[in-house]
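Quick one: co-fold with fe (ii) ion.
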Amino acid sequence: TETDDDEGFCDLDNEADCGAATEKSSSFILSQLQFDLEVGGSHELRISDGRSLKLRLLSKRPLLYEIDDFLSSDEADHVVAEAGRRGLVRSGTEGGGFAAGVRLMDADNDRILTIAEMRRTLEHNFDAHFTEIDVRRMYDELRLDPNGDDVITPEELQQAMPDSKALGEYVRQVMQKNARLRGRNSENMFFFPDRETDGIIQSITDRVAQAMGLPGTLVEKSDMQIVHYGIGGHYNIHLDSAEAPPDRQIPCCTRFDGVKACRSCRWATLLFYLNDVIEGGETAFPVADDPSFDADIFHNEFRENLHVQCDSESVRLRVKPEKGKAVLWYNHLPTKEGEYPWFGAIDHNSRHGSCPVKQGEKWIANFWIKVTDDKNWDLSHQE
Ligand SMILES: O=C(O)CCC(=O)C(=O)O
Ligand SMILES: [Fe+2]
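Sure, here it is.
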């Protein structure tokens, strides 16, 4: 839309721009809910609407709490009904588009693609999560590997698929039929709390701010995304917050205006379960409190794929969906003193996803608390 870049922004170097907000916000520190607890222990939190919330610590890295009955059953039903009334669309994932030119992920630059490298190629270009068996089936169906040596040379690829679009077309078709191969298989819609007139969404937003000890102005800039999964619906392991590119060229934003590239810096996630799932659909945190976690090894072992990995011993924590329950975790580490921006680095142990729904259906709300590089703007009123 017609957003004026400077409108509503206050410049950190020129605090005079920021008016009253600066006075209040300059001393505010983005803290995390920390109690003297061991994993499994609980803390009773009183909030001013007379309620009390019991936070149970599920892990320290990420800092993760489970809160039963954060929403009443009626509130959960209302959110589902209202989302359905406004309409949901099929969920996408960032970077999951179908590019015309396919980038071959030849990690060791030996000009041949092993099966693992082909899996990466499909993942990188199409957000397609093929197993080894799926890749072999593709080789058969496309006659990509006529000599059956399990490696693909550029010549073989060129011979079988002279048009680089053909691979994408095949993958798209297979994913259409078999949603297990997608990175994410669900439908969703958004509520934007600061533009919302629905009283229940407003009161949930207030409760989130209270529970988290965060100013309403920050919390209102969040997104509340409603997600519906049918049978087989899942979301592979991912981080909710986007990593800074090395040159920091892409700024953090709270809303994408459709023009300027920006990324979502999601300080914390509150995930609400809006119904009871008959079987499956747990939220998986495969590396919660895993001190030996190594992102490269995790990735090389294809542990993101929850259709394969969800029931594996290697998943350290699974949260069972229960209507009204919230899980709250921080996608970022606490800010170190003197650190810029005003929030800490990504906590790589916050990786998580949704296990496939085996029976029934699953409704959730993601309440993403977003931050930008501009603290004063985050804490000020928009408009
Ligand atoms: O559905 C879940 O349990 C997890 C969803 C999630 O991680 C997301 O939507 O970002
Ligand atoms: Fe997520």
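If it helps, Residues 227, 235, 240, 271, 283, 352-354, 364, 366 surround 2-oxoglutaric acid (ligand 1) (CB under 6 Å).
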